[in-house]
Each structure stands twice: as C-alpha cells, then as structure tokens.
Amino acid sequence: MADEKLDLQKTWTDEERLALAAKLDEELDAFIDSLEKKRYEEGWPEDRWQEEMDKHPFFMKKAPQPGDDVHPMFEGLQKLKYDPEENTAEELALNYKEDGNFYMKHKKFRTAIYSFSEGLKAKCDKPEVKSVLYNNRSAAHFFLKNYRSALIDAQKALEYNAEYAKSRWRAAQCAFYLDKFELCTQLCEELLKRDANNNEARELLKRNKTKKLEIERDQRKEAAEAKKRIVSFQRLTEALKTRGIKFDDLKNNKPITEELLRPKFLPLEDHPVHLDSDNETLVWPTAFSYPAFLFSDFQQQLSEDVVMEDCINDMFKEPLPCDKTNSYRPGNLNIYYENRKVGCVHKVDLNKTIKEILNEKGFFVTGGSLLFYVVPKNSEVEREFVNQQRRPLIYA
Amino acid sequence: MENQETISYAAMLKDIVNFMNPQEREDLISISLTHVLSLSGSIEGKKAILQHDEVLVAVFNLVNHKFNEIAKYAALTLINLTAEEEDALKVFEIAKSLNPAFPLIATAIKEVVDENSKTADPWTMVLSNLTRSEKLVEDIIVELEKDSTTVPKLLEAFTKLDYNKQNMKLHYLAAIFCNLTQTARGREIACEDKYNFLEKILPFASYEENIVRRGGTIGILKNICFDPVYHNIILNEKDDILHAILYPLCGPEEFTDEENDKLPLELQYLPETKTREEDPDLRKMLLESLLQLCATKRYREVLRSKGVYEILREYHKWEAKFGKDAECLLACENVVDILIKKEEEIGLDNYKEVQVPTDVAEKFVKEDNEYMENLL
User: Fold this and answer.
1) At what angle do helices A127-143 and A109-121 cross, to 10 degrees?
2) What is the ipTM of this complex?
3) Which CATH architecture has domain A87-210?
4) Does A224 contact B266 at a Cβ distance shorter than 8 Å?
5) Which residue range is the domain that position B22 belongs to?
6) Residue A210 touches partner B, C-beta closer than 8 Å
7) Which of these three, B57, B82, B102, is where a domain ends?
8) What is the pLDDT of residues B315-353, one digit of tens each?
C-alpha cells in the first residue's frame, strides 16, 4: 500500500499523462463493447410520452383521483406524506389540512372536504388542529351551499375554540340561510359582544329579524287564508246540499270534495262552482255541446238565476261559424241534458232558470260542470241525438 | 294622644336598636328587625323611624348580613321607608351624610345585577322608589354611569328572564327605567346607539305575564315619545317603536290585503286569537304616545302610511263596545282627529310649537271632561 502511494505521488510529465488517458479510454471502450447488447426499454414511447409525463409525480398537472392507478413514484411520495407509520397524528392532520387549503384555493371544494375529513380521521387530539380542520371543512361546505353541514362543522370548530371568530360568523350566516332565527340572533349577538364594531354582524342581525318577521307574517297570512277557504267551502257545500244538487260521479253518502267540484272540461278548469259575492247565488261552469259538430261552447260563470232562453239568445246573437245552413238561431233550438245514470235524455224547458233545471229529478252535475246539448228543432241531428243508444252507468 | 304615641315609639325604637347590631345573636336581630319592618308598614311607624337616624343606620348595617333572612328584612324595610318621595329623599340624605357614607344606590345596583343575589327583587323596588324622585334621578344616573358595564348589565338583567339564579323576577327594573327616562339624560341613555336600549326593551310592552314589567315598558315608550328630540331617532328604528305601541292596541279584526300591506310587518294578518291590552291605563298611555308622535309632520305622514288610522278605527269600535273606557276613547279620537286631517289643513310642522293661552287650555280640559261624560 505504501509503495503504491509513493508511486501515485510521483511527478507526471505531460506525455505520461496523455498516454495514461488514451489507455483508459481504450479500456472503457473495450468494457462497453464487451457488454451484452440489449434494447433500452424503460424509456417512454414517442406516441405516449405526454401521457407518461402527466403520470410522473414531478410533472403531473392534475392530482390523481381516488381509484386511479398511481405512478409508483407517486405512491412512494404519498407514503412519505400520508403513511401513519411515517408521520405523527398531528403531522398527518396538518398534511391533509395543507392539501385541503390547496384545493380550497383552486375552488375544488368537494376534494377539499375529503382532505379535511381525512385530516380529522388522523385523530390528532390538539384542539387547535381540530378546530381549524372543522372550520375549514365548514368553509368548503359553505361554498357549496351545504349550509346544514357547514353549520354543524362551524359549531364543532367553536367547541374546540370558543373564540373562533371566523367560525362564529360562518355559523351565523348558515343559521340565517337555514331560517334558524334564534340561533342566528344569538350568534350575531355573541359576535357583537366581542366586537361592537362588527358591522357585518349588525347587518345580518337586522336581515335576520326582518326575514323572521316576514316568514311569520306569511304563516299568519296563510293560516288566515286557509281558514277562509274552509269557511267558504263549507258555505258552498251547504248551498249545494240545500238545493239537493245531484252528482252523477258521487257515490251515496260520500262527502262533497273540492276534487268532485273541479271541472273536468279543460276550458272550465279554473272556474269551479262557487257562491257569488252575495254568498247566495251559485255560479256554475257550463258546457254546451253540439252533437252535429263534435265540439262545445263553454260558459265559465253561469249564474243559477239565468233563464235558459236568455242564455241561449245571448249565445246565438252571432251565428255559429260552422253552421252553414244557418239553423242554429234563437227560437230554433232545443236544449237537452243527459241522465247518464239511466241512459236517457231530457228536453229543457227554456222558461226555467238554471236553478230550476238543476232541481229536476233527472239532472245530474257531471265532471263538476253542467252539460247541455244544443240541436236545431226537428232536425235530423235532433232525431239522431234523441234516438242514440245510451247505456246506463253501472256503479259497483 | 298622638304625641304620646310618638314618644312610646321613640322609647321602643331606642331599645330595639341595641339588638340590631350586626354582631348580635341572629335571633335577636331577626326579632327586632321584624318589628321595625312591621312598624315601617304604617304611616305613624314610618314617621317615627325616620325621626331616629340610628334606626335607619342600624338597618343599613344589616343589608349585607350573612343571614339571608336578615338582609332581606332590611331591604324590605327600606322599600317601605322610601315609598313616599319625601321620605325617599330623607333616607338618601341620611345615607349620604353618614361618616363613612352608606352607598345606598351602589348597594342597590350591586344587588340587582348580581345573578346570585337573593335580595335582588327587594332592592329593585328600593331603587324604583328612589328613582321616582326627580331630585334623586340625577345622582342615580351618575352612579349608573360610573362603570360603563352597569347599564348593559341592568339591561341584560331585565331582558333575560332567567337572569337571576335565585328566582328573582326583577320586574321592577321596568319601573326604574321608566323613572329614569323622565329626565333628559335618562332619555338620552335610552336612545343612544351604544346600549341598543330600546330594541331590547320594546318586546316587553306586550309582556302578558306581568303588568309591572309591561306597564313600565309602556311608560318608557311614552316618555320617549314626549320628547320630539328623539322622534327622528325612533323613526329610524324601522317600525320597532311603532309596532311596540300598536301591537297591544290591535285586536283580531281582519283587514283587507291592501290594509295589511300598510301595517308594520309584525301586525299583518294577526290571528283571531289576538287580544288587546286589558289595562285601560296602559291603553291610554299607548294612545297618548301616539298623540305625541303626531306632533311633527314627518311622523304624522309615517303614521298615516303605516295604517295607524285603520288600526285605531277598529280599536275605537272595540273600546266603545267592550273596553268602555271614556278616557281611552277620547285619547283615541284625539289621534284620529289629527290623522284624518290633510297636511294642508294642519298647515304647521310641529304642534308642540303652538302656544296655548292658559284660559284656553283650561277651557279645553273642561270641554274634554264634558265630552267624556257623554261618550259611553
């Protein structure tokens, strides 16, 4: 060994150096040539280099989503950062908190929620860590308008840190959006107690109060209207009962319902039978059908005091557009109604009022409405209409 | 005869005072103090006690006694002794003149705001008695403002119904506040932004459970409405004060949708179970508050736009038929008479600036009285 050292320390001339360099070069070449010839296969193929680049933890632009295959290097890094064996509970929690904050900055609120939740799962006992994680998860929920979850988390944060102003303020806002008025008032007052100049809290307190008053007012209004509806419906059913009005779709002893009275003919739908403003006169939705033309005219609000003849005269002031023979003229018309229960028709006495007609034994209200048939007197249409085969309705 | 009685009181009180030393046996103190307390309940006895400063001093010395019973009796005695304004002044002066002075007001405040005080209610009443004298209110307000946390604490004690853990109700705080707002400084405190005073006390104008609390609050409203300086401030408080005044005057009558829209939010679509303030004195105070608000044009316009006329229309029908109080009816008509006039007819901004000669004023009072006789 000592000799060699001496040998190394000998002074070299330039030629000797060059000769040695050439010799070494030769030896290296010989070594490389002696290696087994093998293709380099670990490189990225040209057509997929971009994909590979994206997978590489140094170059990737997107965080891998749960369920994705991760690059082995990424897995390694993950292990360093997230493995409970490599990290203390606090380190883990803080790592997840950092992740969450990063996602928050990039408005990835759902991913942020996931990170903060993982942070909480790390079971770090320090209240300051827990309060921050809850507070931040609350913020993420808040941005997603998950006010219920945001409120729960903000309150949790306050449990671990009673002076957490951000959490208290967020809790107050959540309470406002959730119509938890008492809670919102309480939180705003707590904020103002700690900072009398907190104008945001003062403003929210006012808005909260107004909103509460409005909602309460609306509830009172609704209750008053519901009551009115019930009273007026009772009056209506009373009026129907005293007149002995019969319905062909009402089974015996069943009460009259709003559904029963809802007109089933589309043009009449919004005008169910009701009492006039005098609370005495019934106003009926009425259909006049023309068997000859297969269509109907509608009177949405026909007072029961109207005499049928006046009604008809009024309707046929102008001729029907489809009436080519001009037979649908006042004085030349017969009106019928059908008793579907027994399957027969009745001719209407034109001098009677609607109320009187409804009082006849064979008249039934059908589909919440009055239904009349209009035919020219002594016409083929009339004969056909009257002689038509009708099958009586059979009730089970 | 009377003289003799006074003398006998004197002799007895002299004896008793000896047993009222805080170091005495508790049973002796208790018996003698009970005696003084019962004496303080009669006019004669009260007179006698107030003629013997040493009795009062003895009572002062017992208010902090470790036996709650004794401390309570001492405070109750002070309630009786301060019931009349003149006597209250005397008690206050004696307390002040002692060497060292007895901190009467400070003691009262301390007990009232102490959540665990078992004598908070008697002391609230003592303070209520003392504040009734305008001569004392100033001193009392100075004491209240010595510590900036006192007023907020009193407010909290008033608004939080379970503030006192010993089941003291503190209803008389309303009377104290009412007395305080009879002075300009008191009204200033009530209307200052920093305490949020009005907003906090307003709900108690319709506090059904207790008439002292409710009446005191309505008294505060009336005091504030009487001072046009604050009309602008209370006008800015959204409809808070208006709602507080009108709510007890509203009944279950239905208004049309258009009428409802005019009313303050809280008064819209009131349920058919709504009842009116049952005490005619309080109804009258509310109506008088409204009349005060009618002083200025700006407020008259607000009152008209908020449907006050509509509410009073229904109220008047009710008062004539069910309430049957002539003074209330007149008070209601006074407001309505102004509201139904057009501003062009009124032609002035502030009624309070009108000078009314004494003879005319007297005539008005006479006419009002005659009118009231025929009202019902």
Assistant:
1) 160
2) 0.71
3) Alpha Horseshoe (1.25)
4) no
5) 1-102
6) yes
7) B102
8) 999 999 999 999 999 999 999 999 998 888 887 777 777
